[in-house]
Design a protein that fits this description.
Blueprint (H helix, E strand, L loop, with lengths): L1 E5 L6 H15 L3 E6 L13 E5 L13 H16 L3 E5 L1 H16 L7 E5 L11 H13 L2 E4 L2 H10 L6 E3 L6 H4 L17 E6 L8 H14 L2 E6 L5 H10 L6 E5 L4 H6 L3 E4 L8 H8 L4 E4 L14 E4 L4 H12 L2 H16 L3 H22 L1
Parallel strand pairs: 1-2, 1-4, 2-3, 4-5, 5-6, 6-7, 8-9, 8-11, 9-10, 11-12, 12-13
Helix pairs in contact: 2-3, 3-4, 7-11, 10-12
This protein binds ligand GMT.
Ligand GMT binds next to helix 1.
Amino acid sequence: MKIGIVCYPTFGGSGVVATELGIELSKRGHEVHFITYKQPVRLELLGSNVHFHEVNVPEYPLFHYQPYELALSSKLVDMAKLHEIEILHVHYAIPHAYAAYMAKKMLQEEGIYLPIVTTLHGTDITLVGSHPFYKTAVTFSINKSDAVTSVSESLKNDTLRLFNVKNQIDVVTNFIDISKHINHFTDCQRAMMASDNEKIITHISNFRKVKRIPDVIKIFYNIQKQIPAKLMMVGEGPEKEPAEQLCKELGIEDKVVFFGNSNEIDRILCFSDLFVLPSETESFGLAALEAMASGVPVISSNSGGIPEVNIQGVSGYLSNVGDVEDMSKNAISILKEETTLSKFKAQAKTEAMKFDIHKIVPQYEAIYQATLTKCKSLL
Ligand code: GMT
């Protein structure tokens, strides 16, 4: 199949999922075309089956906001014609599903039919998409998609609750390439980050309010009072500076390392003992799954789709949003005995296996095939 993929090329989870999906589809013999404003961060290998087409938005002084949707839909039309793309898979509804629909209509004028698969990732439905300023257009573009998927049961339920959706929604969860995490690093270089008696706690995100970064710091503060520990904070975003300030106020700045965005997530997870994800809302929690795949147990909130990934008492523990005391208590209960920690590490890895890329990507292939068949029969 010739598949077009539209996504955000940045460090966000939707872009990571789209990129890993495209790479795997190309390995399975499909021709994949990424169409976005920058080469996706995890797309290192452009091969004969993987292509990247940059969307440029020329600046003009009249524009207060640059018309990205317009440039994207134009590029989609041009690339669909040039490369005879058969199906377009857009990740994150805003504004991708909308731009895809415009492209589809423009192509129809020329007798070309381009089916659209839209994957809903989270905030495009919960925090952003349901805002009254966007809702009408988001509802429209979901209903105009030829197939719609969501990354968890929880997100599917949120979509049905918040929007007047007429389409069927198929749940296709986030996934992980287990082979990248198993024995990938023989030498984690743990000694560079902490001494032998210290435990390493990790948080990875885009440091937005929804991630509840102060909770991460407070949980760590409680842990280090009882167990020698270091905290690794990976990512960039508006909450990073206040977090650095909070560490100073609590007098723990020497125990906390802020890495910024990193392409070495696997290496950081390799030396981690515990992952903390106290999010206000989280449609799935790909970061938690990546941690589990590296054998790192997870302390998380129980919001959104997290309970579909992090299993209570097995891969870690879940608490109500904001219950820092319960999260701290649970973290300490995992970390204080080596035998308990080893047990949770092994269990986290086993749970992660359920989301192996080789189980999930065929589900997308089946959806593409069914969508193509359905659309052809309507022509
Ligand atoms: O976590 C983020 O805020 C980034 C965001 C994105 O769309 O880039 O992530 C969302 O999509 C991920 C991949 O499907 C999910 O694993 C995350 O849970 C989801 N984030 C939220 O719902 C807050």
